[in-house]
Amino acid sequence: MVTQTRRRRSPPFQRRWLRVYWTSVGLLCLFAFWGTLAYQAGGATFPLASLVSLHLGCGALILGATLATRLSRTGVSDMWFVKGTTTTRATAVGWLFVLISIPGGVILVTLLGLDVDDVTLTTAGVLGSLGAVAIVAVLGPGYTEYREALDTVRPSLPYTTPEPDARQAHPR
To answer: How much is the average pLDDT of 163-167?
Structure first.
């Protein structure tokens, strides 16, 4: 007989932030897909540095949102959820601001009559470094925060040195 355990729902505060994380993942992956299509079409000017940045940002947000989801499912308190997802939260909100500014920038460039090529090429370097910083931040401090919060629920085993083998200690 298989018993089915009922999974505890995450608190509303955590569910709201998880929605923000996964929404930013979806939007960034959509923009990365559109950027890939624009780059392959060749008609639209889309710098390769911006394309790489969008894909690195997608990877960072997918990893961060996955860690946040796993942390929420372990049943941590809201305080530890906030501590464990600080880097993910900053990365997700930062990318949302970047994604919101892209259509606004296109409208502004059109209204001001600027050359689109000049604007996209000048922002490519900034956007390129943003993707690299995002992935490094989530892999470094983001993962450390996640592990610290996870250890409050499931303490890790203490590190012990292995006992030497009796045969190695007293060779014949």
So the answer is: 58
Structure tokens at 35: 């950027």
Residue labelled with tokens 């409208």: 107
CA dist 92 and 96 (Å) reads 6
Q: Kindly state the tokens that stand for 97.
A: 């601001």
Burial of 61 by CB count in 10 Å (0-12 exposed, 13-18 middle, 19+ buried)?
buried
Amino acid, single-letter form, for residue 143:
Y
| Secondary structure of 83-105 as H, E, C letters | HHCHHHHHHHHHHHHHHHHHHHH
- Does this model's pTM top 0.90? My answer is no
Higher pLDDT, 121 or 133: 133
Total length of the chain: 172
> What number of helices (H) and strands (E) belong to the chain?
7, 0
Distance CA 1, CA 59 (A): 41
Q: What is the pLDDT of residues 55-107, one digit of tens each?
A: 898 999 999 999 999 999 988 889 999 999 999 999 999 888 888 877 777 78
Tokens of 109: 């460039």
